[in-house]
């Protein structure tokens, strides 16, 4: 009985051990579960052994010696009289039934703990699932916003590129017009340039000029 009391106290200590948070309790439960199962099995074996010993003590010792003492060759005074069976003895003759009920009583707290833990885990999963859904919605909204901004920036870049191309076209036209005007001016300058004199013509012109300068003009002849 002392051994059973010690095992019972040890199991209660493990079951009633507190933790700071739900995660800590779950961690302690899964760590202590194998130890608790082993203790329950030891408790079951000890309880069954005690029940068997109790059944042996409660049963009539003379009944076990009956086949030896009850002999047709022995006088009746040496034979063990049969002891009437009482309801208490009949109840003690069923250790298996007692142990089965004891086993069910021992297993029930563990099953309740499992159920409670599963419920708490389910609640935590629901909360986590709700948080995850909110985060997913926020991420999707952020992605849509970034896509819209990206589209706007692309449109702006395309518009700026088009403006640049238009400026380039206008500058190209202006350069072409300037080139054409330059060619036209060159042609006009070539046509309007003075005639170039040959060296002989220049000498004749020079002599004529000097003659007029130093000799003077010829006198006019007066007709008589």
UniProtKB/TrEMBL annotation:
Residue numbers spanned by region Disordered: 53-133
InterPro entries in UniProt: NAB (IPR011684), NET_actin-binding_domain (IPR051861)
One family name in Pfam for this protein: KIP1
Keyword terms, alphabetized: Coiled coil
Composition bias type Polar residues, residue spans: 68-89
Compositional bias per record (Acidic residues), positions renumbered to this chain: 102-127
GO molecular function, one term: actin binding
Positions of the NAB domain: 1-61
Tree of life domain: Eukaryota
PANTHER family given in the database record: PROTEIN NETWORKED 3A-RELATED (PTHR32258:SF28), PROTEIN NETWORKED 4A (PTHR32258)
Family affiliation: Belongs to the NET family.
Protein name: Protein NETWORKED 3A
């Amino acid at each position: 009985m002392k051994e059973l009391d010690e095992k019972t106290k040890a199991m209660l200590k493990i079951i009633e051990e507190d933790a700071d948070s739900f995660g800590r309790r779950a961690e302690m439960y899964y760590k202590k579960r194998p130890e608790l199962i082993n203790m329950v099995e030891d408790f079951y074996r000890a309880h069954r052994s005690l029940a068997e010993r109790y059944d042996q003590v409660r049963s009539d010792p003379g009944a076990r010696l009956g086949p030896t003492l009850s002999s047709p060759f022995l006088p009746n005074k040496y034979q063990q009289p049969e002891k009437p069976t009482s309801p208490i003895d009949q109840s003690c003759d069923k250790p298996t039934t007692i142990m089965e009920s004891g086993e069910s009583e021992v297993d029930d707290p563990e099953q309740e703990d499992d159920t409670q833990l599963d419920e708490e885990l389910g609640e935590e999963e629901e909360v986590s699932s709700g948080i995850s859904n909110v985060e997913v919605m926020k991420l999707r909204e952020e992605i849509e916003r970034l896509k819209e901004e990206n589209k706007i920036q692309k449109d702006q870049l395309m518009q700026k590129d088009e403006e640049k191309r238009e400026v380039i076209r206008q500058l190209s036209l202006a350069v072409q017009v300037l080139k054409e005007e330059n060619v036209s001016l060159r042609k006009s300058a070539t046509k309007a340039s003075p005639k170039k004199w040959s060296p002989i013509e220049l000498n004749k012109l020079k002599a004529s000029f000097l003659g007029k300068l130093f000799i003077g003009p010829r006198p006019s002849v007066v007709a008589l």
